[in-house]
Specification:
By secondary structure, the chain is of the alpha+beta class. Helix content is 17%, strand content 24%. The longest helix is centred in the last third of the chain and has 10 residues.
Length: 320
Amino acid sequence: MAHPTRDASPPAHSDPAQGVRLNKALSQAGICSRRRADELILTGKVLVNGVLIHEPGVKIDPNRDTVVVNGQKAAFSPQKTHIYLVFHKPVQTVTTASDPQGRPTVFDLLPPEIPRQGLFTVGRLDFYSEGLLLFTDDGELTHRLTHPSTHVPKIYHVLVRGQVNGRTLSTMAQGMRLAEGEVLAPVEATVLHRESPERALLSLRLIQGVNRQIRRMCRDLGLTVLRLTRVAQGPILLGDLPRGTFRPLAPEEVSALRAAAGLGPVPHASAPPACAAPARDDRRRQTPPHATPARPPQYHTRRAVSQPSAKTGHRKTREK
């Protein structure tokens, strides 16, 4: 049996001026995210026309070149139909496809008619956080929205216990240095509602993706996070979508989201069979009441539900 050529020369059938970057082609086909494609290419897991490729920027012609990833031939479709979903993640779920500790995942909660192949979550929410979570098989969009250089804002409503005053808000707004040393970009913070002198509902606007940023900011400011809900990501709003349910993005929402990520025309999109379809496990499904921030656009929040504790969350998960 012939062994693959280890010289990372350009693919035999590709026109470098007209081709598509290999990592981009893999992500657009829904095979993996672009970041994962880079990893696979750099570790020698990708062949193009029998040539072992080590450069993610090599250009290929998906209609002519043969690409093998981890021993499996990649299937490219020039008319790839993409899926775009917004999901209301409940607490006590992890934002992964599987969990070694056996905890429920957000993928477990999607209805069986939603195809899992090539479906990604755009960012993460930790075990005790909830709210807006985007799903898509558009690898290029996922890469843009999760890349550190793309500052698409995300808005969170955070119920905290502790003293929140003007100094607290200005410290966030000026940009903090966390106890671990990370320097944060300014966070736009406002008080939406005060339940008592020691409990306040905050609106926080973030443009970074630092691991567990909100919980660590609040910790350093002497605040305890009681509830953390993502209510917006770029132009996409959670609204009154019931907890544990999803809905497909409207075409104009997809266009706005891609524009916010600096991408061009909208690719083909498909909608799942039903809007606001319930997850298979909807034990936390409720329709939350609304709270409106001080200025537009409007984002919705809801009352707290019964939660395990006011702790800051599981140590081994990530959130924004």
